[in-house]
Amino acid sequence: MKIASDKYRTMELAKKLGIKIPKTFDENETIGNFPVVIKGLKESGRIRYVNSFKELPKFKTDDSIVQEYIPGEGYGFFALFNKGGVRATFMHKRVREYPITGGLSTVAESIYDPKLKVLGLKLLESLNWHGVAMVEFKKDFRDGEFKLMEINPKFWGSLDLAIASGVDFPYLAVKMAEDGDVEPVFEYKTGIKFRWPFPDDLLHLLANPASAKPFFTDFFDRNTKHNIWLSDIKPNLFQVREASLTIISCIKNGNPKYPHGKPELNFMIFDLHIHSKYSFDSILEPKKIIKVAKKRGLDGVAITDHNTIKGGLEAKKINGDPNFLVIVGSEISTEIGDIIGLFLNEEIKSRNSMEVIKEIKEQGGLVVLPHPYRGHKLNEELIEKIDAIEVFNARSSKIENEKSAKLAERYGKPAVAGSDAHFSSEIGSGKTIISSKKEVKKDVLNEIIRLERYQSPSYLQSLSQIIKSIKMEEYRKIPIQVIPFVTKLIRQR
Prior knowledge:
The protein contains 15 helices and 20 strands. It has helices at 7-17, 114-126, 159-165, 169-179, 197-207, 212-217, 234-252, 286-295, 310-318, 353-362, 380-385, 398-411, 440-446, 459-471, 478-492; strands at residues 24-25, 36-40, 47-50, 64-68, 72-82, 85-98, 104-110, 131-140, 145-152, 193-195, 224-226, 268-274, 300-306, 325-332, 339-342, 366-369, 388-393, 415-418, 430-434, 448-453. Strands 18-17-16-15-14-13-12-19-20 form a nine-stranded mixed β-sheet. Helix 5 runs parallel beside helix 7. It is globular. The two termini are 47 Å apart.
């Protein structure tokens, strides 16, 4: 219990067990990179984010642990142990939280992750644990690894979700206390969401207005449970009152959006392959692309319409946000397949692959080979001249993307990701994350730290072909294209 309740001792144990932790700084002078997090050593300790040596003297570091800030999603492993033996397990992922920089779950979803389970069990078994505990991790999107945050050696705030998913920890704990043991419970429903509207999720909404749509639609989602009970509404009315007082207090005390400070991160997230209405198979307005991309947390997009830079130019013109970057690009058709040019100023006139590459580079642009194993005739000369390879395209198959990754590795080319979005729902399904905000063009090649990827529904590709036939006035093709669209849509649903 003493180890679990002390963050420093918890981290020391994790290191011995080979469990990854945030970089920890015993002396302020040893801090290599900012931002850092100052946490109280005890389980419920205070939290502050610090972005520079200049800010450090403002905060006390006595009885605290100073660690690097881990960007990523919060995960929890929950368990009940009986004298060192596990009796029940559960896992969840935070969907929304407050503060938005990292805090209590306002919406969480039940999941199963074998790697998370192994890490949680390893830690608690080493302590010969008895009773309930939560082991909190963050999945660092820079390397995809789980990093330990802390052990919560008691019942946790998101307990409702475990119960709703089929693991009733309070009942099991009482049963074990009365009978000496319980039958193990290791199976539960995944994909169940639970939300705590007042004040938690309401505070998240105020701090992040972009979450307004899911905030309201979650009320109508059958898989999203909540703690509002019409049959016993008085506690909820009290919660509304408390929510109002909490919000007023947050506003009075300064910054309700970032009550613990705002970590200033030195990375940017891009979707480097998006199509607008200027492509023959898309109807996306450039303005809509920017709006959706911002809502999804992107710092910039590359608009790469087929054989034209019109979409990129229009988006760049209407973008009034200096903190959001629009990269003008184009996906050019050639005799060997498509080639993407990024950071363009003028239209690419040639349709010969080598001439296209030459034109892109003469403009100071970057040459990207998109979806190499979909519609390409690859050759050594081509691959040697390109700057980067798209190793994940959200519209390509898993096998095609895996082969693309191997191709980039074989030739030592930088790997990028793109959604190949033709519809707003696809924007951000392929993300390229770079570690700097100084020279984006250079960093796209040299400072890529991680790719994030989510496959697009296959029926959207069929819908793109229908749009293409309409825009090209090839109406005879539409009846044939409708069949695969409907078939894929039914399968997806």
